[in-house]
Amino acid sequence: MFSPAMINAKSHINDLQAEATANRLAKQAKDSGSRSGRIAGALSSVRSILTNPAEGPMPLPKLSDYPYRS
Question: Quick one: which of 8, 33, 34, 35 is 20 to 30 A from 27 by CA?
């Protein structure tokens, strides 16, 4: 026999699985958008590369700040 708690838990698990499936299908539909969306995304990334200034390399930490100097 199944207790009411087991029935409620199984129902909740089924609801969560159905929601996850719906979210996956929605994400696939959104990602497989139209071709113009992909072209617009590519153009905006190229535009951001050309307009943003290039940053220099990240500075390295100095060994004088290292706690265990020998």
Answer: 8
C-alpha torsion sign, points 59, 60, 62, 68: positive
Separation between Cα atoms, residue 46 and residue 33, nearest integer Å: 20
As a whole number of angstroms, the distance between CA 65 and CA 57 comes to 20
Please give the distance of CA 39 from its chain centroid, rounded to a whole number.
Answer: 21
Residue at 39: amino acid letter = I
Overall pTM > 0.85: no
Residue burial 16-32, b: 16+ Cβ < 10 Å; e: rest: eeeeeeeeeeeeeeeee
pLDDT at 19: 94
Residue 68 identity (one-letter amino acid): Y
